[in-house]
Design a protein that fits this description.
This protein has 215 residues and is an alpha/beta fold. It has one domain: TIM Barrel (Alpha-Beta Barrel), CATH 3.20.20.70. An 8-stranded parallel β-barrel has the order 1-2-3-4-5-6-7-8, surrounded by 8 helices. It is globular. The termini are far apart.
């Protein structure tokens, strides 16, 4: 399973990229808005210099025609740009039209398997089920990943990838891999947490103490 970073913060992306584990980046209007004064195109271009992989740039139009127009512009920014659209009927129209033009899309805000199936049929490159937000409703978000994975694997015509999104903690990453996700997109703090364990810290302390006490 690949790891993407879910952020528009260049410092976070630069640091995570230095670990050698990033395969892509996802952004959304909320994440971009947090970077005060940042120009959207410039942010995407800078990310592309740091990460050699898909970079999701989200349209803000609500109609298919508007999404296509935005998507066509985004696609000129860099070959790695993936146009992100919502899981709506207008979004499906945009996915279909953009796919016919050879432009890859990421259908976001997926909350049930039927949305994922229709997105794949429309030509989506990626779908983004929001496991954390599904968990918030009292339903197991990982079951959604399992259902989508099973549906996609049963149909040889579907090549759409599954991004496990709305990741809240390190266990979500492992459970996503076990459930069949192709990608997990995570906030930087979750990636940091994934490499922390009290026994690791204790082991390092013990090794250093033993080294200092030698002879």
């Amino acid at each position: 399973m690949q790891i993407y970073l879910d952020t528009a913060n260049i410092s976070e992306i630069r640091e995570a990229a230095s670990w050698g584990i990033l395969s892509g980046v996802t952004t959304n209007p909320t994440l971009v808005a947090r970077e005060k004064g940042a120009d959207f195109k410039s942010v995407i271009s800078e990310i592309a210099e740091l990460v050699d992989g898909p970079i999701s740039a989200e349209a803000v139009s609500l109609d298919g025609e508007g999404m296509v127009k935005e998507g066509l512009e985004f696609a000129t920014w860099h070959p790695n740009v993936i146009v992100k659209v919502p899981s709506t009927t207008e979004g499906l129209k945009a996915v279909y039209q953009l796919a016919r033009k050879g432009i890859r899309t990421n259908v976001t805000l997926i909350f049930n398997a039927s949305q994922a199936l229709l997105a794949a049929r429309a030509g989506a490159f990626i779908v983004s089920p929001f496991v954390g937000r599904v968990d918030d409703t009292g339903v197991d978000g990982m079951q959604l990943i399992r259902e989508i994975s099973q549906i996609y694997k049963s149909d040889s015509e579907i090549t759409t990838k599954i991004i496990s999104a709305s990741i809240r903690h390190p266990r979500h990453i492992i459970d996503s891999a076990l459930a069949g996700a192709d990608i997990a997109t995570c906030p930087f703090k979750v990636l940091q947490m994934s490499m922390r364990h009290p026994l690791t810290d204790r082991g390092i302390e013990q090794f250093l103490a033993d080294w200092k006490a030698r002879a």
